[in-house]
């Protein structure tokens, strides 16, 4: 029954979106107002219940897990000696929740496109906008902005909460600490691009379960498989994995931690690699969407 309600809700939203595009579209069938298409995609995103729950999960996991890890590390810091104490990274500790929050943003990214294929409303969308690449562009704009704002807010709150917990019991950081502001901002960007990667996967496979499974495999399963390989392969391949790129982005890679990241890309180079993954997935998905039936 809930699935039927979701279908009906999505269908109503799609019809309303089509009316927005139809009203603003010129008489010439070859012209489309991208602003109106963006507005229609925004209507879809904000009215789907999965959007709210995914963003709530993003915040709860990002902030909650970060607070729990910070509390645990603060209570045990007196056991740290030598290199362990020197390499203590309060910034990364407070952002620990990002490693689970990435699943929430990935699910939302996949659902933003696959939900329309599941309910069949994608046919109505492409009927209103035959130039299908404009639909994908509009989805990228809408989802990217929402994901960026939600991710950055979550990461900054997680940082401040975590540092508040650490202060007094363990070393802590502020935004003025070298590398801290970069890590917090980069963590939000990391989540945003991961969401766009999941969106691109969804455009390619057009099926919710398949898209989420592929995303989880890339993010979580590949690093586990890599651990079974010789060290030389781990060092050569590991730096290209999204999960490892994420760890570097939300860490302070200087000082005593530099040795641990010597085989990894620098933060912004790794972020560039991650952006390439998202662009390729979205590009392939767009080409396939144009060439095949809805």
Report the oligomer: single chain
Distance, first to last CA:
26 Å
Global outline: globular
What percent strand?
under 5%
Q: Name the structural class.
A: mainly alpha
Question: Counting H and I runs of at least 4 residues, what is the number of helices?
Answer: 13
Main sheet summary: none
Point out poorly predicted stretches. Answer: 24-30
Radius of gyration: 21 Å
Count of domains: 1
**Percent range for helical residues?**
over 70%
Q: Which series of helices and strands comes N to C?
A: HHHHHHHHHHHHH
Q: How many strands appear in the DSSP assignment?
A: 0
Arithmetic mean of pLDDT: 85
Tags for this model:
globular; 13 helices; 294 residues; 76% helix; 0% strand; single chain; mainly alpha
What does this structure look like?
This protein has helices at 2-24, 34-47, 49-76, 83-86, 90-94, 98-119, 122-128, 132-166, 180-205, 208-226, 231-237, 242-249, 267-291. The protein is an all-alpha fold. It has one domain. Residues 24-30 have low confidence and may be disordered.
């Amino acid at each position: 029954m809930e699935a039927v309600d979701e279908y009906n809700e999505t269908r109503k939203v799609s019809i309303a979106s089509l009316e927005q595009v139809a009203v603003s579209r010129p008489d010439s069938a070859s012209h489309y107002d991208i602003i109106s298409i963006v507005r229609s995609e925004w209507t879809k995103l904000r009215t789907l219940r999965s959007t709210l729950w995914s963003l709530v999960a993003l915040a709860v996991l990002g902030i909650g897990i970060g607070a729990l890890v910070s509390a645990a590390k603060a209570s045990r810091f007196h056991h740290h000696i030598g290199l362990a104490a020197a390499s203590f990274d309060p910034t990364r500790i407070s952002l620990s929740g990002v490693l689970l929050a990435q699943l929430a943003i990935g699910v939302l990214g996949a659902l933003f496109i696959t939900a329309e294929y599941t309910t069949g409303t994608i046919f109505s969308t492409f009927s209103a906008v035959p130039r299908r690449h404009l639909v994908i562009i509009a989805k990228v704009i809408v989802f990217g902005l929402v994901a960026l704002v939600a991710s950055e807010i979550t990461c900054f709150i997680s940082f401040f909460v975590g540092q508040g917990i650490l202060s007094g019991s363990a070393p802590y950081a502020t935004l003025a600490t070298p590398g801290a502001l970069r890590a917090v901002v980069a963590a939000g960007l990391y989540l945003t691009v991961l969401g766009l990667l999941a969106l691109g996967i969804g455009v390619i496979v057009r099926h919710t379960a398949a898209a989420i499974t592929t995303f989880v495999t890339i993010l979580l399963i590949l690093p586990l498989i890599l651990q079974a390989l010789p060290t030389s392969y781990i060092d050569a391949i590991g730096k290209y994995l999204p999960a490892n790129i994420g760890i570097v982005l939300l860490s302070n890679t200087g000082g005593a931690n530099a040795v641990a990241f010597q085989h990894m890309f620098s933060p912004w180079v790794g972020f560039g690699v991650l952006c390439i993954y998202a662009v390729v997935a979205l590009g392939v998905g767009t080409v396939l969407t144009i060439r095949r039936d809805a």
